[in-house]
Amino acid sequence: MNRGAGERRFTAALQAAYDAGRLPLISEIKVRSPKEGDLLAGRDPVVLARTMVASGAACLSVVTEGPNFGGGLELLQTVSSAVPLPVLCKDFVTEPKQVWERRDAGAACLLLMVSQLDWSQLKALHAEAHRAGLETLVEVHDEDELRLALTLDLDLLGINNRDIRQLERDEGTVANTLRLLDSVPPGVQTISESAISEPLEARQVIEAGGSGVLVGTAILKATDPAAAVRRLVQALED
Ligand SMILES: O=P(O)(O)OC[C@@H](O)[C@@H](O)c1c[nH]c2ccccc12
Prior knowledge:
Elements: H1 9-19, E1 25-29, E2 32-33, E3 37-38, H2 45-54, E4 59-63, H3 73-82, E5 87-90, H4 96-104, E6 109-113, H5 119-131, E7 135-140, H6 143-149, E8 156-160, H7 175-181, E9 190-193, H8 199-207, E10 212-215, H9 217-221, H10 225-233
Parallel strand pairs: 1-4, 1-10, 4-5, 5-6, 6-7, 7-8, 8-9, 9-10
Antiparallel strand pairs: 2-3
Helix pairs in contact: 2-3, 4-5
The structure holds indole-3-glycerol phosphate.
């Protein structure tokens, strides 16, 4: 792929965390979710982001989708310019121009959801992201989506424990990741996303061959988000 020097910032940060003995955690900022309602509770996203960084997160994620999750590009811009870590942009991207807008707002990695795109769109957006110097997290929920995703030259595969078509109203369990990981060839870096709260669940993902976990709600709803991040990051220590 046509990526210049220094542009694999997101996967490099995950690897650096792992090499340092930390569980590679992508800590997510999400204004609200259809299931949980308001998740910021009046907090300043920049303060939250800095807390996540200081507590050992490898990377951050910002949900920029507006109608269901209350996000926007300004939020991505604000957070990405306030922290030194690479940021994943989570949104329902379908158009090439959205790729560049998110790059300009500071994203290092872009979510692409197999469930939301037809094959030619997925391929085109994946290539466009690389042209814009972004890595991608290609998200799947089941075997059929996984098979499609694996035909791409993946930077990162995301296994969503929830079915995004239900907009997070379903419970989701890390068992979905553990099951699908059996069908992921070695060498494909895989992130388990959603419905993770316990360090043990995060550890199971790594022990099953995963490269990291993405956690939003459990950190945002914790009475002490810094402690919640630290517990997850330390999940590989015995
Ligand atoms: O809050 P959780 O259960 O920890 O999940 C985070 C993340 O995986 C979830 O926000 C998400 C996964 N895929 C998405 C696509 C769009 C918006 C949001 C998402």
